[in-house]
Amino acid sequence: MRDADATRARILAAAKKEFAKRGLGGARVDEIADRAKANKRMIYHYFGNKEDLFRIVVEEAYVDIRTAEQTLELEHLPAREALEKLVRFTWDYYLKNPEFITLVNSENLHKARHLKKSEKIEQLFRRFVDMVGDLLDRGVEEGVFRPGIDPVQLNITIAAIGYYYITNRFTGSIVFQRDLMAPEALQERLEFNIETIMRLVCVSP
């Protein structure tokens, strides 16, 4: 059983790299097998076909970020501090896990047809939205957040202000004539993201 789990983990890690690099269409099962030190028969045995493997990789990418968010223990912090910590975490996660962004981009190209088949995603995101909703409610009770903010819209905004910057870092560096990935530029952007969200949510930023 341990050998089977280890093999499955190696295949998933190899598939994540291959799909992130080449997308679903360009990824090759042979390359995944070589990376995982497995064979194609084992991949098909554990995961079915290439489409199923891609779906599981995308699922696991979302599981990873949502699991990491749970370790923040935001419920134990004052609401403003918790929200700032969430914004910082999201930004740092995107920077440290570029494969997450490329996998999400790839699935969007396929109009989320793989996630539509997922049994994990709805429950996973319901728990996350509830966490953000509880944070907002706590902030209203503390008198620091405005009432009536939709936790889904807030999450989309937090994701968007980091996601767009990173996915457009190459073209943006040319268009705006600055190195968007320089350490000082990344820190400036993080501070801007935090200020933006606080001005959106707080009674008095």
UniProtKB/TrEMBL annotation:
GO MF entries: DNA binding
Domain of life the protein comes from: Bacteria
Domain HTH tetR-type: 5-65
Keyword Endoplasmic reticulum appears in the UniProt entry: no
Record-linked SUPFAM superfamilies: Homeodomain-like, Tetracyclin repressor-like, C-terminal domain
Annotated keywords: DNA-binding
Chain residues forming the annotated DNA-binding region: 28-47
Keyword Metal-binding annotated: no
PANTHER family, alphabetized: HTH-TYPE TRANSCRIPTIONAL REPRESSOR SCO4008, TRANSCRIPTIONAL REPRESSOR
Protein name as catalogued: Transcriptional regulator, TetR family
Species the sequence originates in: Cribrihabitans marinus
